[in-house]
Amino acid sequence: MNFQHVITRIPCKKVTEGQTTANLGKPDYKKALIQHECYRKALSECGVTVTVLEPLEDYPDSCFVEDPAIVTEKTAIILYPGAATRQGEEKEILPALQSFYPTIEAVTTGTIEGGDVMRIGNHFYIGLSKRTNQTGADCLGKILEKYGYTYSTVPLKKMFHLKSGVNYIGDNTLLVAGEFITDSRFQDYDKIIISESEMYAANCIRINEHVIMPENFPITKKQLQQKGFSVKEVPMSEFMKIDGGLSCLSLRF
Description:
- By secondary structure, the protein is of the alpha/beta class.
- The protein has one domain (5-252): 5-stranded Propeller (L-arginine/glycine Amidinotransferase, Chain A), CATH 3.75.10.10.
- The protein is 21% helix and 24% strand.
- The protein has helices spanning 29-45, 89-98, 134-146, 218-226, 237-240, and strands spanning 5-9, 49-53, 69-71, 76-78, 104-106, 117-120, 123-128, 150-155, 166-168, 173-176, 190-193, 205-207, 210-214, 230-234, 251-252.
- The chain has a 3-stranded mixed beta sheet, covered by helices on one side. A 3-stranded mixed beta sheet has the order 3-4-5, with helices on one face. A 3-stranded mixed beta sheet has the order 6-7-8, with helices on one face.
- The model has no long low-confidence stretch (mean pLDDT 97).
């Protein structure tokens, strides 16, 4: 899981109106800006070059750049968000991707968001959620197969996005929570089981030699350290209020 580049986007003022199921109140815009800066600093400390895009005031959730696109070493793929308020973000992310990729593909049927796409090696797990449907998953899957990757779908029962409850952090290790703890699809991996009280911490990202995780989740932090992972904590309270996790805030390649 070696990365050289990361793309992020500064939250816009309308981030306070972002989509949410969390019932935690509205985020504080100024705090969100500070937390996003902390996130970018942590990324830089992991040895990557961080590209910072300007805020998009017409799209409250546009700081979550992972949802309208995915990136691989072979190509970038533009997705089509399932939330109507996010449709159009895929066009806005395109210029940034063109700076790095000579060839860019696009999902043309169905809906799919990057929060439902988890890569392990050359295989992609695609969650079927309220934001990602079978048509969108299969369209993405066919593009991936063209480049030599494989894919499979994972129907979600309760989770908002696939990566709300399962994330790969390298070394054959998954963070798993809720419905994914006993999911047979993931039985061959070493698992760090996230307690129900810290379920938000299931969404961590591995960047080179470090795992970046949300702060104030001491049980998960201890579990990661006991497994030998180097941990960096960042504040995420304002993004938590609008269903956003660490992976959502960047494209990593």
